[in-house]
Design brief:
Helices cover 54% and strands 9% of the residues. By secondary structure, the chain is an alpha+beta fold. Among the domains are: 123 residues, no CATH class; 156 residues, no CATH class. A hairpin with a 4-residue loop joins β3 and β4. α1 runs antiparallel to α2, α1 packs parallel to α7 and α2 runs parallel beside α4. The longest helix is centred in the N-terminal third of the chain and has 26 residues. The protein is globular, with a radius of gyration of 23 Å. The chain starts with 10 loop residues before the first helix and ends in a 12-residue tail after the last helix.
């Protein structure tokens, strides 16, 4: 079998792909708009929709060929609603963007060894007793190998693809070229602010030393936790482009999905508590609740991996988001309107009715704003997402005039992906009561919550006191 192609790193070539996409589509849109002047309103709308579908397909095709930041851009864009695309095609487009993460074949080890040895400052044999040359995981920026350290520790070695740093830097410089295309597909979005946030987050994800710092923060916070485990970082073996952590053996997501209801419900609650607990106590948003980033350990704990796509929020911003959630739960229409305005979701607050925005958020977030047991499943997730972002929604026109503050981009991504993963898991729980623990500081509502509260009460898991109203 032939080796997978090398990561395309040539600056001119990568720029040409993005600029060619932008220029070609701009010309096609101009031609479509000119022709629409001679068409009926119905025919003009159909032609514009077909042009939007063509643009969407070309974006997926080009980003999927480039790895690096280009693929990351696609993954994050998958969480945004593109109202210019016809309703029947929109979810398919977003699904294709989301799948970009999984379409990254591992690179041959002959291309990786030189980079690893340069980063660790010596031969592999100097630092590792064993090193498996076959990667067991691969993504858009790097791949992961198993190894054994000189002192006998089983470790996972994540290493960036050779040349990917240069490729990502080129992509980040070229991101502004995508602005006209994003604006065509999502006219109400503040595309410049969105791409600026993406640029900063993706640049950080490329720095494994920064990821190691975040990883150590999360590992320390959850050390000795009753149902969560985060592998320890081996700082002495890690560098800017190599990250070494303990190897954790466990059951992967596809097998977790086959467990009985009780076990799946327990895993689902742990997922919810991990991401919202980390946000609530450490101000840290982890933007990648991906099924590939978790394992069910043999002792029943859930292991969480990969903290590259993350950011800390300011305490006052997070408290604003929490106050907004409390207002939705309380049915406080004016409080919801004021909260959305203050956080930056409403460019023109006077153009939105309080009752309308309350109903919009209550409908979109019903799964964790309403108390009572609910078993999630893929069909429920699909319908909920269509209702919250579809032209059939009574709030669709209002949503087109709203925007996403840059601070909220990863937060909304975290919520959306967590919702999807819980649905794929078919997890059941009283998500509304769980959410109240984090939005409104309600006491634990389940035995797992009580176990975590006891762990926190012993002084484990440093909390951020400023978050408590």
């Amino acid at each position: 079998m032939a080796d997978p192609p090398k990561v395309p790193t040539n600056r001119v070539g990568r720029t040409a792909r993005i600029s060619g996409l932008a220029a070609g589509q701009s010309l096609r849109w101009a031609a479509t708009n000119a022709a629409n002047r001679l068409r009926s309103e119905e025919d003009a709308q159909h032609a514009s929709e077909q042009r939007a579908i063509g643009l969407a397909d070309q974006i997926v095709d080009q980003l999927g060929k480039m790895k690096g930041a280009a693929m990351k851009i696609g993954q994050v864009l998958s969480t945004i609603d593109f109202e210019a695309i016809p309703e029947g095609e929109r979810e398919n487009f977003k699904a294709k963007l989301a799948q970009l993460r999984d379409d990254a074949p591992p690179q041959p080890f002959s291309r990786m060894r030189k980079l690893i040895e340069k980063e660790i400052g010596g031969k592999l044999a100097d630092s590792f007793a064993e090193f498996d040359e076959d990667a067991f995981a691969a993504a858009s920026i790097g791949q992961v190998h198993r190894a054994v350290t000189k002192d006998g520790r089983q470790v996972a070695v994540k290493v960036q693809y050779p040349g990917i740093a240069e490729a990502v830097e080129t992509d980040l410089r070229n991101m502004n070229l995508l602005l006209p295309l994003v604006r065509r597909l999502a006219p109400g979005l503040d595309a410049r602010a969105l791409l600026g946030e993406l640029r900063e987050r993706i640049a950080e994800e490329l720095d494994y030393e920064l990821e190691a710092q975040r990883h150590r923060e999360v590992e320390r916070h959850f050390r000795d936790h009753p149902f969560v485990v985060v592998p320890r970082v081996h700082t002495d073996l890690s560098s800017r482009r190599v990250l070494v952590t303990d190897y954790i053996d466990g059951v992967r997501f596809e097998l977790i999905k086959a467990l009985d209801d009780q076990e799946r419900d327990r895993v689902g609650e742990i997922l919810f508590r991990f991401f919202f607990g980390l946000l609530n106590r450490r101000l840290l948003v982890c933007g990648d609740p991906h099924p590939g980033n978790l394992l069910l350990c043999h002792d029943g704990r859930v292991c969480f991996l990969d903290f590259g796509l993350a950011r800390h929020l300011l305490p006052e911003y997070l408290e604003g988001e929490r106050a907004l959630a409390r207002a939705v739960q309380a049915g406080d229409a004016q409080g919801v309107h004021d909260g959305l305005s203050q956080l930056g979701y409403l460019p023109d607050p006077a153009a939105f009715e309080p009752d309308q925005v309350l109903d919009q958020l209550a409908t979109a977030g019903e799964w964790y704003f309403v108390s009572g047991f609910r078993r999630l499943d893929p069909d429920f997730i699909r319908v909920a997402m269509e209702i919250s972002g579809s032209p059939r929604s009574p709030h669709f026109e209002a949503m087109r005039r709203q925007t996403i503050p840059p601070e909220a981009l990863l937060l909304r991504r975290m919520e959306g992906l967590l919702f999807s993963v819980l649905g794929e898991l078919r997890a059941g729980g009283d998500w509304g009561e769980l959410a109240r623990e984090y939005f409104a500081q309600q006491p634990p509502s389940t035995p797992l919550g009580e176990a975590e509260a006891a762990w926190l009460g012993r002084g484990a898991g440093t909390t951020v006191g400023a978050l408590v109203p």
